[in-house]
Predict the structure.
Amino acid sequence: MTTGLEASYQRAEQVTAAWARSFYFAGWFLPAAKRRSVFAIYDFCRHADNLVDDRGDRPVDQVRADLGRLRTSIEAIYAGESPDPRWLALADTIRRYPVPMAPMLDLLDGVATDLGPVAMPDFPALERYCRLVAGGIGLIFAPVLGVPGGPTDEAGIRLGIAMQLTNVLRDVREDLDQDRVYLPADELALWGLSRADLERRRMSTRLRGFIAYQACRAREYFEAADEVVGHFPDDGSRLTVRLLVRIYAGILDRIEQRHYDVFQGRAYVPLGRKLMILGRTVLRHRAARGQPPRAAVA
């Protein structure tokens, strides 16, 4: 007979498999206990995001109320109260590992930003948003994977930002459909572009150059974040993080292969390419074994 806790873990795995193919793929190299908890955390993150992105015709005030109830559920878990049955696996994970509460609540603040029309005036505004919705994800997952908070925190945050910057480029067309423009307005202007150029959904020489510039910036964040990989234990956690970084960077490769045309459709890494990345990553991982971890980004 399946217990409520086991059912909660199973649902978390199903959610991860359905919504995050790359994350799910990389997660299978983790020890079973870690993998279950990583999926439980992803389930929470996806639920928070879907409250906003899949709200349909629900009024904004109702969605804010749902986010508020989710915040209350998280605070109750950390207070040691009996969790909502929906979050049994998450509560068990928080009991087992020193997962910090602050970045989980920051995530709720970040996704709430998407309830109205989105426009980023400059890159600092975009970076703040990325820190809220993705930068803290590294702080949430790191204790489960075996890295305590401390000097590696900023590198983990940079990894989350790198992934979110990649999402911004991958989802330009879909975001426009929802009245969201995350690309910095002042940088668009420097390239002689505006939101109207994006709304035309046609690539130009200037727009290709602008997207290439943004992709280069995302790669710089990946490179900075790569410093943290060696700090993860060599029980599959290090390989998983390295693989996830390579797969996400592969989305940038796909965008580049399309000559930075972000209107063709969502760029993704197909399974065959993931398997190729896996093979290369395993070889590099084996070659790196026995070397001391590099210093974390200050």
